[in-house]
Design a protein that fits this description.
The chain contains twelve helices and no strands. It has 237 residues and is an all-alpha fold. The chain has two domains: 124 residues, no CATH class; 100 residues, no CATH class.
């Protein structure tokens, strides 16, 4: 949510605050109650979109880093056993295929990490019989690595999915804010006329809350009230 949208959203929240503080005045009106509830539902939707924008990607990225480390640690356990076996057999090609440290697997492209760990798993599986006999590798070790390979593969695309969700929320925000404006302009603003004289304090508080304060502005309550009064007397098309 950009600064302009946030200022708009704060106006909607301010209006709801004024309405709820003075609910004893309007709660007997079914139309007013319905309009207030419609604004509240719309405002809650905007909050949901805002949370989607701000929270998803960071959390997913942090989760992926944890899963990658678990994968690297499980892979290096298997790789160590295979490397030792390969060297004893003078199998330089096999040794090179598993010659990785945790740091090696933690850095560089994610896809490379996934490929290298899968290759380590295959090397361990292909040579398990010999290493099991030497008690340097077990099927349980391979199963643990397989589980981490699967977990990393599942989470690998989640940041891209999160970015898509964030973009969708960003795209929906303007429409959601305009829907709340419509509720105000076409319902609550009209219904408030009933209280212009009978509940002048409530009416004035509503007008102050209806002012969108420009980002960076620090208007006082009196200045906002004056702005609201001027806007109210300005003819609209």
């Amino acid at each position: 949510m950009n600064a302009s949208q946030m200022a708009h959203h704060k106006m909607h929240e301010s209006v709801l605050g004024v309405l709820d503080t003075n609910n004893s005045i309007w709660q007997g009106s079914a139309a007013f109650t319905a309009a207030r509830n419609q604004l509240n539902t719309g405002n809650e939707y905007v909050v949901t979109l805002q949370q989607t924008q701000g929270n998803v990607i960071t959390g997913v990225t942090e989760d992926k880093a944890v899963v990658r480390r678990r994968l690297a640690e499980a892979a290096v356990l298997v790789a160590g056993a295979v490397a030792s076996y390969a060297d004893s057999q003078d199998n330089h090609e096999l040794f090179a295929a598993v010659d990785f440290t945790v740091a090696d697997l933690m850095h560089g492209p994610e896809e490379a990490c996934e490929t290298n760990c899968a290759n380590i798993l295959k090397a361990g599986t292909d040579n398990l019989a010999a290493m099991a006999a030497a008690q340097t590798l077990t099927q349980a070790d391979l199963d643990a690595l397989q589980a981490q390979v699967d977990a990393f593969g599942a989470i690998l695309t989640r940041p891209r999915q999160a970015k898509a969700a964030t973009k969708a929320a960003t795209d929906q925000l303007p429409t959601a804010l305009l829907a709340n404006d419509r509720t105000l302009e076409r319902q609550l603003d009209r219904l408030m006329e009933k209280y212009r004289k009978s509940n002048a304090d409530f009416f004035q508080a509503y007008q102050v809350a209806r002012v969108i304060v420009d980002p960076g502005s620090h208007l006082t309550q009196e200045q906002m009230a004056a702005k609201a009064a001027k806007a109210k007397t300005t003819p609209t098309s």
